[in-house]
Amino acid sequence: MAVSNRSRIVILIACLLAAGGCCLASPKAGKPRELWVAFTSAVKGKLSFCETCGYINYGAMPQKAAMLKRWRNGLPGPLVVLDAGNCLGFGGDARAAPVMVQAMDVSGYAAANVGDDEAAFGPRAVLQAAKGTSVQWISCNVRLAKGGKPVFPASTIVKSGGVRVAVIGAFDRAALAEGFPLHSELSIGDGLECVKQEAQRLSGKYDVLIVLAHAPADRLLDYARAVPQAALIAGGSQMRPVPEPKMVGNTLVFQPGKYQVARVQLALKAGKYVAAKWERVTVYKNAPADADVARMVEVFQKYGR
Questions:
Q1: Do residues 251 and 210 touch, judged by C-beta distance below 8 A?
Q2: Which range, of 16-30, 206-220, 229-243, 260-274, averages the lowest pLDDT?
Q3: Residue 15 domain-assigned (yes or no)
Q4: How far apart are CA 305 and CA 302, in angstroms?
Q5: Residue 18: pLDDT above 60?
Q6: Which residues contact 195 (CB under 8 A, 6 or more apart)?
Q7: Can you tell me the mean pLDDT for 96-125?
Q8: Residue 109 domain boundaries
Q9: Is 18 inside a domain boundary?
Q10: Which of the residues 34, 72, 99, 251 has an alpha carbon 20 to 30 A from that of 17?
């Protein structure tokens, strides 16, 4: 008896279902089960260790670069590296800014948030420092004072190991109380509202959402409540003491301390990446240094370039 094409299709589907549906792709088919995020904050333009810099997460860039490279090669899943704000150090040697961004580029940083240090430098200085590198500076609410035009992209999509990681940057107005004043060319909009709007605009375009928030500790929790779809709120303000990690629903609020890099493991559960483990990893002075970044620092310290 002849079997029609339609019957053949029905039989094939039945066989696949009987076999457990292993050949039927799920929405997350091919995605890694784990994704890792590493981020820094308040590095303040210091390329090497600063013995007299108090509690802020200064320096150690050659050591951080070596550690990040080890993680990239050794972790069981893809790694995304970010900075949550105040990486460039206003008030210090402005010539260090492009060297810092070059060191970040060599270290594999994908994106960096604008904090009060960057906003004090001004838009031209930050964009010039990042020129020729792969580091994307972002901020959804830092705008030109004249005309209100955005200076930086509100967000960026980082693709790592087949995972689309949406990263939104925000500078909360409350952070101005403990930081540098804005450059005269800049203004700040409502950080919380702009993050909500940008998250809505990005809906359906990412597998995991991260918010880099330059904000005081209590405001970080507000960002987590406002954007519950975010897996991580990465804090970037120079607060003391550094707030303890906290889960708000399915959103982790986290920030590193002095000489530390925050590391977060996101696990794929029920089709969604959520924080499974997190730690602050301290970088010690005698830790191995990345040769390329160490050479950059040495040349800058010797020749000022």
A1: no
A2: 16-30
A3: no
A4: 8
A5: no
A6: 140, 168, 170, 211, 213, 223, 226, 227
A7: 93
A8: 27-303
A9: no
A10: 34
Alpha carbon of residue 240 to chain centroid: 21
pLDDT (mean) for 130-157: 96
Which one-letter amino acid corresponds to residue 285? K
Q: What is the pLDDT of residues 92-108, one digit of tens each?
A: 677 889 999 999 999 99
End-to-end CA distance of the chain: 83
- pTM (2 decimals)? 0.87
Instruction: State how far the Cα of 265 lies from the Cα of 8, in Å rounded to an integer.
Output: 45
> Whole-angstrom Cα distance, residue 165 to residue 179?
29
Which positions ≥6 away from 111 have C-beta within 8 Å? 82, 83, 135, 136, 137, 138, 156, 158, 167, 169, 212
Q: 21 pLDDT exceeds 50?
A: no
Extract the tokens encoding 162.
């087949």
Which pair of tokens denotes residue 108? 């594999």
